[in-house]
Design brief:
- The chain is an alpha+beta fold and about 400 residues long.
- The protein folds into 3 domains: about 100 residues, Acyl-CoA dehydrogenase/oxidase, N-terminal domain (Butyryl-Coa Dehydrogenase, subunit A, domain 1, Orthogonal Bundle), CATH 1.10.540.10; about 110 residues, Beta Barrel (Butyryl-CoA Dehydrogenase, subunit A, domain 2); about 160 residues, Butyryl-CoA Dehydrogenase, subunit A, domain 3.
- The protein is about 45% helix and about 15% strand.
- The chain is globular, with a radius of gyration of 22 Å.
């Protein structure tokens, strides 16, 4: 079944996401089975400009605040987690528009169906310095949304002309991201996983590809922000927006599971009992605890984003305290969302395991989210170090 929908592109991204949510939810089974977003759904998403939430306005983007972005992502994730994840990945990648020359940004993002994807860092991803740019070789796994991406990025170590690897002054590896069109890559369809199946997060490879200097970025470096990166949004980093987006995905999935459970509890009488689930004092109390965890986590995330936004809107850089607050709130939200959702899954009983019910896919998707780098529990160690006044690893702040 294809999607037939007239989607206005006016209004804020939250309203557009809310209007499209029923269409996204209806496509869930096809997304899961195909391990990608169907073409008709992609058309609706592009019509609603949901891939353009974090792009500069001069590129037809919303240049939305991170809190608005989080609200949008939560709505989409409640409808379908894989769709939200793909939009979150492309949105984080689109922050690169602030770090390239305007003509490069227009080439990549002017097309209506534009989407940039990139995969994870691993050994063997090398950009060799050559005349006018770099000769790039490498493979990048976990390219969420790669099956519909129009451009790709590759994070690379840089090899100098003399064969040495470029390092930063402190001795840590220097990394630069190469941007290249879809036709330059070879894709390996290796996304066989338990959750977030519809993201199609395959591995792609390039070998000996020439990438001009203009199509490379060093992400999140203040000195490299260009003409399109003057808005306050771009004082946040891609790490902040990935943390925000994927925390919102977890919250959206959990919201769906909790709502599903309330609906189920109002009509299910467990075997060998005489009362419906909703009438159990134990379940009533448990639901309240789960709801409290969800609301507290969501409120904490939004508060951290709002405080940082108000600060950077004055034209000043984000403080370390604010970066730490976003790190804590986002990772905490993912784990609290999981705990709240696990309550709903467990108390739904055997009903939850059937594919005909919404529980099991949401359960798998949420547990896949918790395995992503933004959910690592060692982020709490980083936060704790900062709170203790110790030096904290800034890599994920």
């Amino acid at each position: 079944m294809s999607v037939a929908v007239s989607m206005p592109n006016a209004g804020d991204p939250v309203s557009r996401a809310r209007a499209l949510a029923p269409v996204i939810e209806a496509a869930g089974a096809r997304i899961e089975a195909g391990r990608e977003l169907p073409a008709d759904l992609l058309e609706a998403l592009h019509a609603a400009r949901l891939f353009r939430t974090l792009l500069p306005r001069s590129l037809g983007g919303d240049e939305a605040t991170p809190e608005t972005y989080a609200r949008m992502m939560e709505i989409i994730a409640r409808a379908d987690a894989s769709t939200a994840w793909c939009i979150g990945q492309a949105s984080g990648c689109s922050m690169a528009a602030a770090y390239v020359a305007p003509e490069v940004a227009h080439r990549i993002w002017d097309p209506r169906d534009a989407a940039l994807a990139w995969g994870a860092v691993q050994p063997g991803q090398v950009a060799e310095v050559v005349e006018g740019g770099y000769r790039v070789t490498g493979s990048w796994p976990f390219a969420s949304g790669g099956r519909h991406a129009t451009w790709f990025g590759g994070h690379c170590r840089v090899r100098e002309r003399d064969g040495t690897m470029r390092d930063l002054p402190d001795g840590s590896p220097y990394e630069r991201t190469m941007l290249f069109p879809r036709e330059a890559i070879a894709m390996a369809p290796d996304w066989q996983v338990m959750g977030l199946r519809g993201t199609g997060s395959d591995t792609y490879t390039v070998t000996g590809l020439f990438v001009p200097e203009a199509f490379t970025v060093r992400r999140d470096r203040e000195e490299e922000r260009r003409a399109l990166g003057h808005g306050s949004l771009y004082r946040f980093t891609t790490t902040h927006l990935y943390a925000t987006g994927f925390a919102a995905v977890a919250l959206g999935i959990a919201r769906g599971l909790l709502d599903d459970f309330v609906t189920l509890a109002g009509g299910k009488t467990p075997m060998a009992t005489s009362r419906m689930l909703r009438d159990s004092p134990v379940l009533q109390s448990g639901l309240a605890w789960a709801e409290g965890k969800w609301r507290a986590a969501r409120a904490g995330l939004h508060a951290a984003l709002r405080e940082a936004q108000e600060h950077v809107a004055t034209g000043t850089a984000m403080t370390t305290d604010q970066k730490v607050a976003i790190r804590l709130a986002s990772t905490f939200a993912i784990h609290q969302a999981k705990e709240a959702a696990d309550f709903a899954w467990t108390e739904a009983g055997a009903t939850a395991i059937f594919e005909s019910r919404p529980f099991e896919r949401r359960f798998r998707d949420l547990h896949a989210v918790t395995q992503q780098v933004q959910a690592r529990r060692n982020h709490f160690e980083t936060v704790g170090q900062h709170l203790m006044g110790l030096a904290a690893n800034p890599r994920f702040l």
